[in-house]
Amino acid sequence: MGGYEVPRKFPTTVIGSYPKLPEAEEALRMRRSGRVDRGKFRELVNSAIQGVVGDYLEAGVDVISDGEQSREDMVVFFSENLRGFTLSDWVRVFDNVYFRRPVIAGRVEWVSPVTLEDWLYATSISRGRPVKAIVTGPYTIVEWSFVARRVDRAELVLEVASALRREIEKLVEAGARYVQVDEPALSTRPSREDAELVGEALRRMLHGLDARKIVHICYGRLERIFEYVVDYPVDQLALEFKNSNFRLLPYLKEYSYSKELGFGVLDVHVTRVETVREVLEAIEKLMKLGVVGPEKVFLNPDCGLKRLPREVAKAKLRNMVEAARKAREVW
């Protein structure tokens, strides 16, 4: 897994998901229809991961992911692999996007590795680039599921956190150097109580692990709870900035931000490809703030790239990487 040196300043990374490649779509169709041939499923998923990693390498991304090619949905995927869940009928999320909302019907427990096989395969073909180990956070899993148990909500979030701790331990034991917990649901319910609950869950999942610890939060009104989020027991906050016109920047200064920052410079909701100059201007905004130095800034998209056309996603990443290269010559 060694052999590649991540740049000291402005390393580039991704949040996790990538457009589904045809092989992954076929694998997911097989699983949905019940035609799950384990060997064929693995063959298709590995082929898709190979394509994703190839795109990342071609674009020049420093810290990559497996593209989440085997994940139908960030919550459904974990609900299918943790004990205690069943699935409801199809539920409309927005537009013509539907998913099978998980139902928490029993005690949530870890059974066996969920993400490890994909992570190991991506790592084996990454040419030494580190591959992020990525799990959906317990708060988001609970928020985006039906709960069919009489259980205190906070206790349930921590129960899921304990199950995910087992998953993360397996990934770190296998050599994962970057561990990311995705909590997009938090900014949609920005209360102190919920923010502190997520912090407690992160401690349960990540305490004592020998890896760079990251939490990703996007959209919503994160500024309302930023004073609690900055104290999370992680090394890095990976946040959305571009889509909200960098609304969070003043809060970095207000709360004397000192962690690493995953700086969102690509809007994943539009197919327009940001120019190199545009990304450099975003970096300049952050550098002028004088809060974090270039050695603590990771450049990334605002969120996962899965809803973009593949060529658009790749073009956005390519320009982000080129902007990072130019920024290292300036700052």
Describe the structure.
- This protein is α/β, with parallel strands linked by helices and 331 residues long.
- Helix content is 40%, strand content 18%.
- It is built from eleven helices and nine strands.
- Strands 3-5-6-7-8-9 form a six-stranded parallel sheet. Strands 1-2-4 form a three-stranded mixed sheet.
- β5 (178-182), α7 and β6 (212-217) form a beta-alpha-beta unit.
Strand and helix layout:
Elements: H1 22-33, H2 38-59, H3 76-79, E1 82-94, E2 97-110, H4 116-124, E3 133-136, H5 138-143, E4 146-147, H6 153-173, E5 178-182, H7 192-206, E6 212-217, H8 226-229, E7 236-239, H9 249-254, E8 260-266, H10 276-289, E9 297-301, H11 310-330
Parallel strand pairs: 2-4, 3-5, 5-6, 6-7, 7-8, 8-9
Antiparallel strand pairs: 1-2
